[in-house]
Amino acid sequence: MNTSGSGHILSDVALDITVECKDDRGLRHEIDTVLAYRSSDPFAVAMTFITSDGDLVWTFGRDLLMRGTECPVGEGDVHISPAVGLGGRAMVSIELSSPDGHLVLMARAADIHDFISRSVAVVPAGTESDFFDADLLISQVLAS
To answer: Which residue among 78, 108, 111, 133 is the one 20 to 30 A from 65 at the CA level?
Structure first.
């Protein structure tokens, strides 16, 4: 994902992780996922699910991800909380809801902390507004 080729977004941080989920029958599935962060969009993280039907991207607040590793947070479509996986492993639960369905994912807490540390090295927490380009956002909105 860290490419600048046609159709690809250049990410300052991209981390390949595997998340787990259970389907309606209780069967466990692993999904290859890429967490990405761009200093040009300093308030958001993108979670891209790599599937045989194509990539599916969810974007949500970096602050939500950061706070969700410590305590349950979220309103609306994204809820994040600390969790415990099989064998007592520290995990982070990421719950996504849309009109199409509901999905609860479990990511290794170490992977999420690694991603957050890398993103904070690019844009320190609390300085996001220093990197936000309001003029660019306005021009993108007007162009669409």
So the answer is: 133
